[in-house]
Amino acid sequence: MLEQKLNDPSLLKQAGFINGQWVNAKDGKTFEVFNPAVGEVIANVADLGTKETLQAIEAAQVAFDDWKVVPAKQRSSLLRRWFELVLDHQEDLAVIMTFEQGKVIAESRGEIAYGASYIEWFAEEAKRIYGDVLPSTSADRRSLVIKQPVGVVGAITPWNFPNAMITRKVAPALAAGCTIVLKPAAETPLSALALAELGRRAGIPAGVFNVVVGTDAKAIGAELTSSSIVKKITFTGSTAVGKLLMEQSAKTVKKTSMELGGNAPVLIFEDADLDKAVEGALVAKFRNAGQTCICANRILVQDSIYEEFISRFTARVSEFVLGDGVSSTSTMGPLISRKAVAGVTSLVDDAVSQGAKICIGGSASNNGDHFFQPTVLRDLNTSMRLAKEEVFGPVAPVFMFSSEKEAVDMANDTEFGLAAYMYTKDHSRIWRVGEALEYGMVGINETAISSEMIPFGGVKESGQGREGSKYGLEDYLEVKYFCLGDI
Which of 125, 259, 390, 474 is catalytic? Predict the structure, then answer.
C-alpha cells in the first residue's frame, strides 16, 4: 500500500546499504515495519547484525582513504546535489515518514525540509574548514594549525525524527571528510534507506555513507563502539543508552557526541504576553504528539495567572483532532508503540493518585492501540513522576510557582539540561533567569528554537557536543599542530 502512494516507488528500500550496494542479511532474516496509526505491516526489512556491521565499517575505512582527500569544493557540490534531491522528493519522503512513524503529514513535510537544511548548511560549511597561523615562539620557527577529518564515524539515531536526526549527523561528517556507518531505529528504517538512495543518486561514493538496519541495536552498537577503526560515535536517544555507549567507547578512547534525554520547562511569568505563551507552550508540548526531546515537559506558571492560563490552554488543546497522519483532518497522530502508551498512562495515573486533576484527556484514545488523548493536568507537585521523568507523549503537566527564584529552582531540579523556555516582558528578568537556567538552549518568548544555524545540544546528563551551526562541524574534526623549524 505504501509503495502505491509514492510518486517514485524506487525510494522504498528494504535492504541495508553497504559500500554502495543493497545488502540483505547473511542469514536471510527480516523484520516487519508497522504503521503505528493502523497497525499494518508496511515493509519487511533486512535484519542485519554484527557481521554486516563489520562489513560496513571496513567499507567505510577503505572509502575514507579517498574521501578525506576529495577537495572541499567537490564534497560541497555532492552534498548540495543531495540536498536538492531531498527537496525534489519531499512529498514521497514525507509519506514514507508518516507511514512508518505516525506523525501527521504536515509535520512530516516540515521535517523533510528541516532535515534538508542541515545538508545545505554543511555543504556550505565544507568550504570553510579553516586552520590558523599562530604567533611564533622564536625567530626561526613558525606555528601552524590544520584541521583534518576524524575518520570513520558510527551514528545511531532515534525513531521520533527519522530524517532530521540523520542528516544533522551525516551531513557534517561528510562535509568534514569523514565516512559514516549509520544505525537507524528499527521502528523507522525506511526514511534512512530513502536518504541513502538519494545520496547514491547524488554521486556520494560507495562506502562513504553506509546504513545498517536491524533489530539487535545492542549488538550493532557494541560492534561500532568496540571497533578500533571507528574513531567517533554520535548518538541521539536516551541518557541510559548514551551512558552505555560512552562507557563502551572509552575502551578505544573515541570521540563522542551525545544528544540525550530532556526535561524541558516552560517558565511563564505574570508579565508575559499570555496569548503568545499559550500558543508557544502548545506547539512546544504537542508537536509530534509530544515525542520530542525538547518538548515542554513541565509548564511552570506564576500563581497570579495560573487559572487564566489553564483555561486558555485547555481550550486550545481541545481543538486537536487525533487520527491517521495521512488524513488531512488529523492534527495529531499516534504514539510509536503500545509500550509508549502504557508508559504515558503510568505517569498520568501516578500524578492523579497524588492529587493532580485532569483538565482534559487523561487516558488512551479509542482511535487505536497507539493513540493517547491530548491531556492537560493541573495541581501538581514536585514529588510526582511527571516532575522528574521525560513524558514523551501528549501530556501537559502545569505546575504553579510564586516567585522568580522558585521558578528557577523548579526548572533546574533535574539531572537533564537540554532546552528551557520562558515568557516575560521584563528584560532584566530575561538576563537573570536566562543565565541561571542550567540548560544548553534557552528560548525567550519563543519555543520554535531549532534551526540548522544554531548549536543544538545540552548540558548535564542531556549530553555533550553540538549539532548544527558552525560548531557542529568541530566534533568531526581533529586539530593538528605543525611546528616548522630552521626557518
Answer: 259
Residue 253 is classified by DSSP as T
CA-based max dimension of the chain: 79
pLDDT digit string (tens) for 56-67? 999 999 999 999
| Average pLDDT by stretches of 10, the chain with 487 residues | 94 98 97 96 98 98 98 98 98 98 98 98 97 94 97 98 98 98 98 98 98 98 98 97 97 97 97 98 97 96 98 98 96 97 97 98 95 98 95 97 98 98 98 98 97 97 97 97 95
Distance between start and end Cα atoms, the chain: 70
Size of the chain, expressed as the number of residues it contains: 487
Is 443 within 8 Å of 454 (Cβ atoms)? no
Strand stretches in 124-245, DSSP E: 132-134, 142-149, 152-156, 179-183, 209-211, 230-236
Domains observed in the chain? 2-260+462-482 (3.40.605.10), 264-444 (3.40.309.10)
Residue 145: all three cell numbers together: 594549525
Residues 137 and 143: beta-carbon distance below 8 Å = yes
DSSP 3-state of 18: strand
Residue 259 designated active-site: yes
Grid coordinates of 202 = 547524488
Amino acid at the residue 351: A
- H or E element: which one contains 31? strand 30-34
pLDDT in tens, 5-38: 999 999 999 999 999 999 999 999 999 999 999 9
Per-residue cell: 249: 567507547
